[in-house]
Amino acid sequence: MNLPRTTLAAVLVEQKKPLQIIEIGLPTELGIGQVMVELAYSGICGSQLGEIDGVKGPDAWLPHLLGHEGSGKVLAIGPGVKYVAPGDTVVLHWKPSQGIEATPAKYSWGDKVVNAGWVTTFNKHAVVAENRLTKIDGSADLQTAALYGCAITTGLGLIDNRAELRLGESVVVFGSGGIGLNIVQAAHLAGASQIVAIDRFDNRLELSRTYGATTVINSTTQDAWAELNRIFAKQKLDIFIDNTGNPDIISKGYELISARGRVLLVGVPAKGQQASLYTLPLHFGKTIVGTHGGEAIPQTDIPRYMNLFESRKIDLRPLISEIQKLDQINQMISNMRDGSSAGRCLIRL
Hints:
Belongs to the zinc-containing alcohol dehydrogenase family. Residues 32-136 form the Alcohol dehydrogenase-like N-terminal domain. The protein is of the alpha/beta class. The protein has two domains: 6-149 and 316-348, Medium-chain alcohol dehydrogenases, catalytic domain (Quinone Oxidoreductase, Chain A, domain 1, Alpha-Beta Complex), CATH 3.90.180; 155-292, Rossmann fold (3-Layer(aba) Sandwich). The protein is 25% helix and 28% strand. It is globular and about 65 Å long. The relative contact order is 0.16.
């Protein structure tokens, strides 16, 4: 088949500025382990907002492509690829899986090079490393399939692989956006007795209730810590999960948990920020751990979580707040920032 030579993409050209919607040139040939995918849908994750804002500092790779969760079909494969083939339906994800970790592709924009990582999804056609793809059934719903690239695997994986949640334990989820909502849903499925969801926006909190939150707290209109101390005055909290990366929230969550409680960190503080902890309780059973994509293994966990969806053990449709074309991406990002969108925004490519 004749492969496309150019594609439409949303490109980060300058930090703290809107993405530019431009046509870029695709690589003329695929290298070892590279796969060309035609995207159907891409999710927008809070990580991309952090990249735009420069929370980890200056970006040395501008201009570059963004996006790390999506769904689509394989158009062509490079030498050495054996786990996907042309015509396959795939989930695109940021966590490495089986296959080759190929050299990231280079795209062109006039006389400029547009950089990319091992996976990008804010472009209609993407050249992706084989190990950032997981083959799924061709009849799968491509809208929800896109969310398995990050939001679902991180949220469900955190509870499934990392939290060691036991039946009847209590959980606080601070930050109830796309990943937080999946954490709430997974904690409910795993048998948590008490799930407290905290966020700044009521629409996210209402969605949290539908996913199993027993208590919700709006941190802008309520004193979240006074409420938490009241709720857990008699029986201390077992698990505190932070999705914000706010050092003060991390420190207070650490103080709130029981003597053998666990703090799990999903959010990452901005560069230079530090949380303050009294470490003595760590010697006697408290734990605080970082998490990395819910410790999910894409080639095994994505099919398992898809089985939960197909058997109606979990519901993913309410997670999708809006679906727009690529040229509306900056508006969707704005909607995520101001809370207009409760869950995940999807780009229809």
